[in-house]
Amino acid sequence: MLWSLLQQLLKHYKTHLLTFSSFSSRNGGGGGYSNGGYSNGGSYGGGGYGGGYGGGGYGGGSRGGAAAGGGDRMSNLGAGLKKQDWDLDTMPKFEKSFYKEHPDVANRSQREVDEFRKKMEMAVQGKNVPRPVETFDEAGFPQYVLSEVKAQGFERPTAIQSQGWPMALSGRDVVGIAETGSGKTLTYCLPAIVHINAQPLLAPGDGPIVLVLAPTRELAVQIQTEITKFGKSSRIRNTCVYGGVPKGPQIRDLSRGVEVCIATPGRLIDMLEAGRTNLRRVTYLVLDEADRMLDMGFEPQIRKIISQIRPDRQTCMWSATWPKEVRQLASDFLNDYIQVNIGSMDLSANHRITQIVEVVSDFEKRDKMIKHLEKIMEDPGSKCLVFTGTKRIADEITRFLRQDGWPALSIHGDKQQQERDWVLNEFKAGKSPIMVATDVASRGIDVRDITHVLNYDYPNNSEDYVHRIGRTGRAGAKGTAITFFTTDSKSPYTVAPSATLW
């Protein structure tokens, strides 16, 4: 019934709102940036967006083939890797169990534990799952880790951290399912630091002790930032290995020796096949955003990489969803794993995000976008991430916005890494509070204070929708997601089955 009503609305190109939580529109003027000085060039492209990229900026713009995705073009990667014959009896032993239950945790009754898990929307599976911790002190981290955590101003562990830290520190294989922005990175980073410090020092020619696989270069860089921050006091060295940039600096880091390697699958296999590193010392493996890596076609590469790692390693798999493909990967490569789910295992959007689906025609999109931006940018602290379906539309929309005086920049897979990094830094700093992106950025961007997401083009599936809008409403904050729905879009109930018509 609702879908037929939407079809009638589309015929007349009326605009209606489908809202998932309360939304109050703000009356306001013409937007603080509409007459600003952003259309006359500045540091991006030299002569204004109307003339395209190049000029004084990044020397001619886009570059083909630099996207981070997997797929058939990478299916032959790893064909030259040597098959490993693991004889664990002759291999050196290693320590991976470090967890000692805090007295306060041990003294809680099972009822108190169950109530805490219920309050945190937490469900666990597996044998002998450790109890969750409620404070940083209860996690049992060494003082050098605890000092770094407290120096960052964190008040309490997030839900995934409360349960995930005891699980990872216990040395067990772990599956963690939680929404984007839930604090998963620290959940595996801090135990990784403890793990490294318990292992023998690297010898010349050794590869890393900890390997983190990530789907995109942006996410890999953000993971590196966290590991650098918290591993500094232990002098833990790391490198980030991803495509789209010269290999030289990455090769130098690997040859000097690093305890942590954060990598996208394709570039890591390049390094392994070229003999630039090896995975014989890896005893702590992390698959971050496993569902996204499989979506991007990386499963063959992941399997080839894991075949190069000793089978008695500790493996931690983190994902926003738990589809059958991820379940199969866990079954194949994790041993007697324990699992924590925060919220529903089904794909669901963050409940702190106000979601609006607006029915428009294609020719109305730009005007509607401007009206929303005028309201959004009334608040000088706002940041808006605009998603488009293609790189071409991303560039066209950005050019249109800049010509109209809006501080907008774009990011997508065809841009050189140096340009992508610069755009992301401008957005983070608030110098350009509007960023236009394709889905290549929807899982890799970690900017904590994004207030709005605008889906200029409707996403292809529910996974992309949830991960797009998950860029806002992070770390306990509220956010707003606006989605344009046209005659060419799929039913909104594909992504929002609980929608009600207002």
From TrEMBL:
Residue ranges annotated for the Helicase C-terminal domain, each copy included: 368-502
Q: Which UniProt keywords apply?
A: ATP-binding, Helicase, Hydrolase, Nucleotide-binding, Nucleus, Ribosome biogenesis, rRNA processing
- What positions carry the motif Q motif? 134-162
The entry's localization annotation reads: Nucleus
State the reactions this protein catalyses: ATP + H2O = ADP + phosphate + H(+)
What biological-process terms (Gene Ontology) are attached?
Answer: rRNA processing
Q: Which residues form the DEAD-box RNA helicase Q domain?
A: 134-162
Any single GO CC term annotated in Swiss-Prot or TrEMBL for this entry: nucleus
Q: Where is the Helicase ATP-binding domain?
A: 165-340
Would the keyword Nucleotide-binding turn up in this protein's UniProt record?
Answer: yes
Q: Which GO terms describe its molecular function?
A: ATP binding; hydrolase activity; nucleic acid binding; RNA helicase activity
Could you say which EC number(s) this protein's record lists? 3.6.4.13
Keyword match DNA-binding: no
The task this protein performs is described as:
ATP-dependent RNA helicase involved nonsense-mediated mRNA decay and ribosome biogenesis through rRNA processing.
Q: Which family does it belong to?
A: Belongs to the DEAD box helicase family.
SUBUNIT field: Associates with polysomes.
Name the UniProt record assigns to this protein: RNA helicase
Q: Per the UniProt entry, what species is this protein from, by scientific name?
A: Aspergillus leporis
Lineage summary? Eukaryota, Fungi, Dikarya, Ascomycota, Pezizomycotina
